[in-house]
Amino acid sequence: MNSQTIPEYHRAHRSSVAQWLGRSLLRLWGGWRVVGDVPAQRRLIIAVGPHTSNWDFFICLAAMLALDMRIHWLAKHSVFRPPLAGLLVRLGGIAVNRGKPEGMAADIAARLNQAEAMMIAITPEGTRKKVARLKTGFVRIARAADCPVLPLILDFQHRELRLHPLFWPTDNADQDAAAIRLLFATATAKIPANF
């Protein structure tokens, strides 16, 4: 695990046991490491990809624990069922109903705007299956919250979680999403055929 610079306002202040668990899981799962620093930006959308497997979530969760970061993340509402619902919320989960997307971008942007500091991780593919293009909701949220996107690339070949430089959205969401997808293409997904 590399030494990361993380702004204090993005620290979760979890127990040393939680941090040890995260580091141990990253080692156990093949020696994953985080490359790059979290920028000194109070509000961020983290675009995570390529997303082709459930392993993506577990690796990112382990890294979040290891680095003691407070990150919120979006997941389909059907995942938030007892007995795990409470734990997922405590770990930063935000349930979204993909069948009713109306107003979701505005709601998430409002959460960001109301927070003193907040990072929200989104998988722009929206599914683990192969897609022709990324969904643009993450860009629309970033624009509405006047915050940048931090691309986080999952590379299974090199066992790296790579933090790229900040990406400021333009007024062309489709073009922005295509640019982020090109960054995702620099990595080897867990299931390459699904990217």
Low-pLDDT runs of 5+ residues are none
Strand content: 15-25%
What would the principal axes of the Cα set say about the shape? globular
The total count of helices amounts to 6
CATH first level: which class? Alpha Beta
Structural class by sheet pairing and helices: alpha/beta
Biggest sheet: strand arrangement: 1-7-6-2-5-3-4
Number of domains: 1
Can you count the beta strands?
A: 7
Task: List descriptors.
195 residues, Rossmann fold, 32% helix, alpha/beta, 6 helices, seven-stranded mixed sheet
Report on the architecture of this protein.
With 195 residues, the protein is of the alpha/beta class. It has one domain (8-190): 3-Layer(aba) Sandwich (Rossmann fold). Helices cover 32% and strands 18% of the residues. Strands 1-7-6-2-5-3-4 form a 7-stranded mixed beta sheet, with helices on both faces. A hairpin with a 4-residue loop joins strand 6 and strand 7 (160-163). Helix 1 packs across helix 2 and helix 4 (104-114) crosses helix 5 (137-144). It is globular, with a radius of gyration of 16 Å.
